[in-house]
Amino acid sequence: MPYDLTLSGDFTSYCAGLAKHADSELTNSQDTAGRGYIALWGKQSLADDNPGTAVFYDNGAKVGLTEDKLSYIVILKPTDGKIRYYFAACWEQEPGGIKTKKEFVQYLQSIQRQLNNPVLVQVEILNKIKKG
User: Which of 8, 86, 98, 105 could form a disulfide with 56 if both were Cys (CB 3.0 to 4.6 A apart)?
Assistant: First the structure.
């Protein structure tokens, strides 16, 4: 799901992040082109199961990655006062749910490929003129 923000004022950066959980593991994309991500896999709920959460961002807007006591954070710089990032989540108990970290990373890489290679649609209008 995309989040588009328009910032007014003198904002030089914006932060998006994920809440830390003791039994979850951070993973992030290693490439620097296109979209990147930070993600958590592991115990993050009272149901004692393994959901995964992720924030995708434009690597060109990334200032850096950091963390504090409670969160993993990506710092983004606005372009023309605008920032776009994406949030994704999965849960092992949903139908056909992702059950392992390996499956979760494959899911993240699939979304990353889709974001880096969007479908382009061109619509042409053909006018048929009858001469009569």
Answer: 86
In a domain? residue 77: yes
pTM: 0.84
Number of independent structural domains in the chain: 1
SS3 content of the chain, % helix, strand, coil (to 5): 15, 40, 45
Tell me how far the alpha carbon of residue 50 is from its chain's centroid.
18
Residues 4, 84: Cα–Cα separation, whole Å: 5
Within a domain: residue 128?
Answer: no
The reply to whether 18 falls in a domain is yes
Read off the DSSP letter of residue 126.
Answer: P
pLDDT digits (tens, 9 = 90+) for 23-35: 899 999 987 789 9
